C-alpha cells in the first residue's frame, strides 16, 4: 500500500563491500517469515536521518521485522495518524508529544531517532552581533510555528545569555525552505536552518551561526520514536518496538565508525538533490561533523529521562507545553532501550 | 481568426511572460527567483535527480480519477440544486460551508479513512474539484428561463428528453467554466495531497523547495504549468466536439 | 420563498448534517473528530466571550481588501480581454499555466515581496480569488449571443453605451457567479493567509488549538468560519437578486 519514497540508487554497486550491497537491496534475507510494522516518519531525509532510516529499513529485516515507512509533511498529522491507528510507530518531535499527552492522549516515547540535530540558528550579521540584538525593534525572528522546536532552540540560547523574551518579535514562517528564503530576502534577521545550508547562505551575504544545539544543550533532543501507550502494552508489539530500536542502534554504531556504511545509507535514502554527484571529500567532511562534532548516532541511543528533563524549562519558557507538571517517567518508556542494549551488548 | 495568427499571438504572449521572468530572475538571483534560462539550464539535472516525468505519469491517475468523479458529482448535484428548491434548501448550507473550508483540515481525516495510497489522493482531488463544478453548474441551472421548459412541456417532452435536449445545452457554457476552474483546482489538489504524504509530483515540489536554489522548484512548477495548458486545451477541444453549435452562437471562438 | 428557504430548509439541513457528523464521529477514532454537541457548546462560549467575533474583525480586513482588489481588477480585465480576440488568444495560455500552481508554492515569494504581515495576507487573498472571478467574467462576456450584438450594432449602439446597455447586463449572470465563487475563495484565503504568514486572529486561534490537540476548539473555529462563509455567499446571492432581478429563471 504505501510506497518507499526514497529512490533506490544503482550506485549501490559502486560501494565496496558486497555484504552491504546485499543488505541494501532490502531483501529480508532471513529464513523465517518477517513481522510487519508501519512506521510514519517526517519529511525530507538529510544526512543525519540516513543511518537510522537504513537501520530500520535494511537492518531490521535481518532480525525478522519488515518496516513499512510512510513519510508525512506535518508532525502533528503524524501524531494524529498514530493516535488514530493508521500507523504503529511514529518518528516525531518530543515537544508535540508531551503536549499531546497533556491533552489526554496516551502516546509514549521509547527511543531517540538520532541525537542533537543538524539544525542551527543563523543570523544576519548586519543586524545581529550578539544575542541581545534579538531584542532590537527592527529584528524579527523566523520560526516554524509558535511553541515548536525551532522556537525553543532559539529561546534557550537567548535566555542563557540574559535576554528579555518580551522584547523579541517572532514570526511564523513555516518550513525550512521558506525560512531560508525569508532570511535571504531579509524578511527575518534570524532563523533556524540546517548547518550544511550555511556555506551556501553565507555566499549570498553577511550571515553567521549563532547557536549550534549540540554545543548549547547537552544534549538537544530533536526527533524521538513513539507509539500509542496501549499499542506498546501488547507483548508482541513491545517485541517489534525493541527490534525497531535494535535496527536503529546497529546502524548508529556502524555509521559512527564506518564512513562507507554512512555513505551507503546516504546514497540510498537521502532526498538531497545532487547527492550522487557530491564529491566524497564533501561527504566525509559532513560525516565528520555529524559524528565528531554533533555525535548524532550515539552507541547507546542516550535515551534518558534526565535529557528531556533538562530541556523542560525551555519548553515552558516558550509556552510550548502547558504550565502543568509533567510525568516524564510515564511519557518515556526506557525499558525497551534497556532491553535492546542488553541484547546487543 | 486564422490558426496561424492565433498561434503567433499565443507565442507572443508566452514570449513576453518569459522575458519578464528572465529579467526578474537575473535581478534576484537563483536563491530567491531563478531566471528562465537558469531553470532550463538546470532542467535535465532536475528531471534526472527527481525522476520528474515518471513521477508525473504516476500522479496522473489520481488526477484523472478524482477530477472526473468530481465533475460528474458536481454536474448532477449542481443541476439538482439549481432546479429544485427542496434540494437547494437542504444541501446549500453544507455546500457553502464546505466550499470555504480548506483541504488542509481534511487531510488527517482522509488519511485515517483512506490510508496513504491512491484512494486518499483521489479523495482529496475529488473534494477539491466538486465544489467548483457544482457551484457554477448550480448558477447556470438557476438561470434557465422558464419559457424554455414550458415549451418543452408543451411539446410533451419526457423528463429525460427535457434534461438532455433542453437543460444540458442551456447549461453547457456553465458546465464548461465549472470544469475548467475545477481542472485547475484538481491539479493543485493533486500537488497538495502529494506534498502532504511526500510522494509523487507533490513530493518533488516539497523536496525541491528545501534546496537553496530555486532552479529545481521552478522546473517542477514549469512542468505543472505546461501540463495545465495542455489539459485545458484538451478540455476545450472536448467541449467543441460535444457542442459544436455553441461556437456559432458566440461572437468569437474559444 | 426566501423565507421558506432560509427559515425552514436551512435549519433542517443543518440539523441533518449534524446528525451525519455525529454518526461519523462514532465510527472514527476520537482524536480526529469532536462530537457536534461539544463543538457547538464551545462555539457558543467562544462567541459569547467575544474571542471569535473579535478575531473575525481582524481577519476580515485582509479578506475584504484582497477580495475587493480582485473584483476591481478582474472585472475590467475580463471584459476587455473577453471582447478582444487578439488579447484573449495571447493571454489565455499564460492564464491556464499560472492558475494551476498551488498558492502554497507562491508563499515564500510573497513573504519576500510583501512581507509577513498584512500586505502579504492581502496578496494571498487576491491571488486565491482573482482567477475564479476572471474566468467567469471572461466566459460571461464571450457567452453573449451574437444575435444580441448584431441587433445592438444595427441600432447604432456603440462605445461605452454598448458596454453599459448590452455587454455588462448580458454578462451579469456569469459575473455574479464569479463574485459568488470568488467570495467563497476569499473566505478560505482569509484563513489560509493567517496560517501561512505570521499567525494572527482566527488563524492563530486555529493554530494554537491544533498545537494543544484541542480538537473541540479546532472544529468550533472551523464551524464558525464556515458559517461566516455561508453568510457571505448568501449575501452575494441577495445582492444578485437586487441587482439583476430579471435573471431568475426558476420560480422558487
What does this structure look like?
The complex is a heterotrimer of chains A (345), B (254) and C (252). Chain A has 345 residues and is an alpha/beta fold. Chain A is built from 16 helices and ten strands. Chain A has helices spanning 18-24, 50-59, 75-84, 94-102, 149-160, 176-184, 198-203, 213-216, 229-232, 235-257, 259-269, 280-294, 305-309, 312-317, 328-331, 335-344; strands at residues 35-42, 65-72, 89-92, 107-112, 119-124, 140-143, 169-172, 190-194, 207-211, 224-228. Chain A has a five-stranded mixed β-sheet, with helices on both faces. In chain A, helix 10 (235-257) packs across helix 11 (259-269). The two termini of chain A are 36 Å apart. Chain B is built from twelve helices and no strands. In chain B, helix 4 (52-83) runs antiparallel to helix 9. Chain B is globular, with a radius of gyration of 22 Å. Chain B starts with a helix and ends in a 5-residue tail after the last helix. The relative contact order of chain B is 0.12. Chain C is 84% helix and 0% strand. Chain C is globular, with a radius of gyration of 21 Å. Chain C starts with a helix and ends in a 9-residue tail after the last helix. Classes of the chains: A alpha/beta (345), B mainly alpha (254), C mainly alpha (252).
Amino acid at each position: 500500500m504505501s510506497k518507499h519514497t526514497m529512490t533506490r540508487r544503482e550506485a549501490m554497486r559502486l560501494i565496496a563491500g558486497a555484504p552491504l550491497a546485499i543488505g541494501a537491496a532490502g531483501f529480508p534475507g532471513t529464513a523465517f517469515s518477517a513481522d510487519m510494522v508501519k512506521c510514519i516518519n517526517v519529511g525530507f531525509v538529510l544526512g543525519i536521518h540516513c543511518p537510522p532510516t537504513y537501520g530500520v529499513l535494511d537492518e531490521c529485516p535481518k532480525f525478522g521485522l519488515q518496516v513499512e515507512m510512510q513519510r508525512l509533511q506535518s508532525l502533528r498529522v503524524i501524531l494524529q495518524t498514530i493516535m488514530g491507528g493508521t500507523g504503529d510507530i511514529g518518528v516525531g518531535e518530543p515537544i508535540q508529544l508531551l503536549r499531546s499527552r497533556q491533552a489526554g492522549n496516551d502516546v509514549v516515547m521509547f527511543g531517540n531517532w538520532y541525537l542533537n540535530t543538524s539544525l542551527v540558528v543563523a543570523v544576519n550579521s548586519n543586524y545581529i552581533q550578539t544575542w541581545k540584538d534579538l531584542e532590537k525593534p527592527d529584528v524579527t525572528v523566523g520560526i516554524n510555528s509558535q511553541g515548536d522546536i525551532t522556537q525553543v532552540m532559539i529561546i534557550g540560547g537567548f535566555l542563557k545569555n540574559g535576554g528579555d523574551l518580551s522584547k523579541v518579535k517572532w514570526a511564523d514562517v513555516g518550513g525550512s525552505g521558506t525560512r531560508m528564503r525569508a532570511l535571504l530576502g531579509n524578511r527575518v534577521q534570524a532563523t533556524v536552518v540546517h548547518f550544511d545550508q550555511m556555506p551556501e547562505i553565507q555566499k549570498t551575504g553577511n550571515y553567521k551561526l549563532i547557536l549550534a544545539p549540540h554545543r548549547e544543550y547537552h544534549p538537544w533532543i530533536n526527533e524521538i520514536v513513539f507509539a500509542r501507550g496501549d499499542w506498546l502494552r501488547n507483548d508482541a508489539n513491545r517485541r517489534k518496538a525493541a527490534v525497531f530500536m535494535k535496527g536503529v542502534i546497529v546502524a548508529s554504531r556502524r555509521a559512527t565508525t564506518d564512513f562507507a556504511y554512512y555513505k551507503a545509507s546516504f546514497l540510498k535514502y537521502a532526498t538531497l538533490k545532487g547527492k550522487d554527484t557530491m564529491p566524497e571529500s564533501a561527504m566525509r567532511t559532513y560525516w565528520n561533523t555529524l559524528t565528531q562534532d554533533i555525535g548524532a548516532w550515539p552507541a547507546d541511543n542516550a535515551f534518558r529521562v534526565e535529557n528531556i528533563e533538562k530541556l523542560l524549562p525551555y519548553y515552558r519558557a516558550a509556552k510550548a507545553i502547558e504550565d502543568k507538571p509533567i510525568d516524564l517517567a510515564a511519557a518515556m518508556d526506557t525499558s525497551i532501550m534497556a532491553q535492546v542494549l542488553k541484547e546487543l551488548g | 481568426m486564422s490558426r496561424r495568427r492565433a498561434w503567433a499571438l499565443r507565442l507572443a504572449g508566452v514570449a513576453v511572460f518569459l522575458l519578464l521572468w528572465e529579467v526578474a530572475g537575473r535581478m534576484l538571483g537563483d536563491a530567491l527567483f531563478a531566471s528562465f534560462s537558469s531553470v532550463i539550464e538546470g532542467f535535465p539535472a532536475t528531471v534526472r535527480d527527481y525522476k520528474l516525468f515518471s513521477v508525473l505519469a504516476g500522479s496522473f491517475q489520481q488526477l484523472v480519477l478524482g477530477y472526473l468523479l468530481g465533475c460528474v458529482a458536481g454536474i448532477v448535484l449542481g443541476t439538482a440544486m439549481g432546479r429544485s428548491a427542496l434540494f437547494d434548501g437542504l444541501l446549500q448550507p453544507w455546500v457553502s460551508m464546505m466550499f470555504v473550508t480548506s483541504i488542509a483540515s481534511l487531510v488527517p481525516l482522509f488519511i485515517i479513512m483512506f490510508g496513504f495510497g491512491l484512494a486518499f489522493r483521489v479523495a482529496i482531488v475529488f473534494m477539491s474539484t466538486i465544489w467548483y463544478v457544482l457551484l457554477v453548474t448550480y448558477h447556470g441551472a438557476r438561470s434557465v428561463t422558464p419559457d424554455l421548459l414550458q415549451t418543452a412541456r408543451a411539446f410533451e417532452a419526457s423528463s429525460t428528453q427535457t434534461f438532455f435536449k433542453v437543460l444540458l445545452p442551456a447549461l453547457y457554457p456553465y458546465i464548461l467554466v465549472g470544469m475548467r476552474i475545477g481542472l485547475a483546482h484538481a491539479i493543485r489538489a493533486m500537488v497538495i495531497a502529494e506534498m502532504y504524504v511526500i510522494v509523487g509530483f507533490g513530493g518533488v515540489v516539497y523536496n525541491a523547495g528545501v534546496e537553496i536554489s530555486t532552479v529545481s522548484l521552478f522546473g517542477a512548477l514549469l512542468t505543472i504549468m505546461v501540463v495545465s495548458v495542455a489539459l485545458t486545451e484538451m478540455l476545450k477541444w472536448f467541449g467543441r466536439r460535444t457542442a459544436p453549435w455553441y461556437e456559432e452562437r458566440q461572437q468569437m471562438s474559444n | 420563498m426566501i423565507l421558506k428557504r432560509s427559515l425552514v430548509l436551512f435549519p433542517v439541513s443543518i440539523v441533518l448534517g449534524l446528525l451525519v457528523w455525529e454518526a461519523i464521529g462514532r465510527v472514527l477514532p476520537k482524536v480526529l473528530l469532536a462530537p457536534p454537541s461539544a463543538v457547538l457548546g464551545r462555539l457558543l462560549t467562544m462567541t459569547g466571550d467575544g474571542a471569535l467575533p473579535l478575531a473575525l474583525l481582524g481577519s476580515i480586513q485582509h479578506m475584504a481588501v484582497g477580495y475587493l482588489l480582485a473584483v476591481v481588477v478582474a472585472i475590467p480585465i475580463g471584459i476587455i480581454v473577453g471582447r478582444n480576440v487578439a488579447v484573449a488568444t495571447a493571454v489565455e495560455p499564460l492564464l491556464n499555466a499560472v492558475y494551476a500552481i498551488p498558492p502554497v508554492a507562491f508563499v515564500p515569494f510573497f513573504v519576500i515581496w510583501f512581507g509577513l504581515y498584512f500586505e502579504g495576507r492581502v496578496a494571498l487573498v487576491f491571488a486565491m480569488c482573482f482567477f475564479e472571478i476572471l474566468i467567469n467574467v471572461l466566459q460571461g462576456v464571450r457567452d453573449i449571443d451574437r444575435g444580441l450584438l448584431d441587433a445592438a450594432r444595427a441600432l447604432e449602439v456603440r462605445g461605452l453605451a454598448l458596454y453599459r446597455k448590452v455587454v455588462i447586463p448580458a454578462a451579469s449572470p456569469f459575473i455574479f457567479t464569479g463574485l459568488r465563487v470568488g467570495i467563497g475563495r476569499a473566505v478560505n484565503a482569509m484563513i489560509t493567509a493567517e496560517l501561512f504568514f505570521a499567525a494572527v486572529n482566527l488563524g492563530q486561534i486555529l493554530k494554537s488549538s491544533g498545537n494543544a490537540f484541542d480538537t473541540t476548539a479546532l472544529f468550533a473555529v472551523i464551524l464558525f468560519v464556515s458559517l461566516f462563509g455561508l453568510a457571505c455567499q448568501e449575501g452575494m446571492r441577495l445582492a444578485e437578486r437586487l441587482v439583476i432581478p430579471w435573471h431568475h429563471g426558476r420560480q422558487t
